[in-house]
Fold each of these.
Amino acid sequence: MEKYIDLAKELKMVNAMIISPQQVFFDIRAILKCRWGCEDFFQKTIRCHTRATTYEERVEMVKRYNHILLAHSHDARELSVAVLEIERTAFLDGYYFAFAIRTCNLCKSCNAKEGSPCPFPDKVRPCDQSFGIDVYKTARNLGLPCEVLQSRDDIQNRYGFVLLD
Ligand code: SF4
């Protein structure tokens, strides 16, 4: 598992650690905020689809894993790139269920948000909020910073997950 921490650092992540599913906090209110509080939520776009899965199924999916890589970045796009690369590497290493959970920020400007076709539909992964993950509580419990930003100039602390095995 150390290999994936090293890879995350090579991919410019400021922190990376292996955690267990017990260290991921779920709260159905994350979905409440996703559906009514997120400026990026668009029911019909690939970016926000939950693919007909229920909250209970999504929680169960995460809990079936043993090791999860948590990546911390100040840059949304770098984080999306990193979790996909770590997922790919783990898959090629034989962890065939490796899977990233991270709001898609691959493109500088998201076509999907603007109602156009997504150029990389196979690379879109689900948003952690749509999975009901309380990222604030999860990060803080691990001693990592996660505060409500007060202005656009504040340093962003963004988090992504790679479910490994
Ligand atoms: S790959 Fe690009 S267009 Fe597609 S959802 Fe992600 S950011 Fe948007």
Amino acid sequence: MMSRGTAQPVVLITGDRRVPGEVRVERWDKPARLLRAAKRLAVLWGLAVVSVLIPIAHFVLVPGLLIAGPIAAYLRFRQESGVLGGEGSCPFCGKTMTIDDHPDEWPFFETCEACHDPARIEKPEVAAPAAYDNEPTGQT
Ligand SMILES: [Zn+2]
């Protein structure tokens, strides 16, 4: 279904269970980021125009969307890469798990639709950074 981006192997972790999975990560160059930002702005300002027609709610929606437009567009422009989504097996119940799109920030969490258990999703090659207090497993 999705062929954009580059494949990124991941590990889905619940407790001490680790299951491999895969997501697709896309990087956007400046013109692509501008385009994405412009689309976001167009959608929100388009909604602002449409919500003029909604009685009472338009007092909040129209100014709200007009302000939110440039902010959302700016945030979108700053985003240089993103996880488009992917698939893996739930480490808890073993069912196929769809990974939604996320910002390119690791690790992130995804909730299994079948058992509603959150799985932590990490890049497999990541050496545990000092900031993370992982339980010591290695004996030297
Ligand atoms: Zn599950």
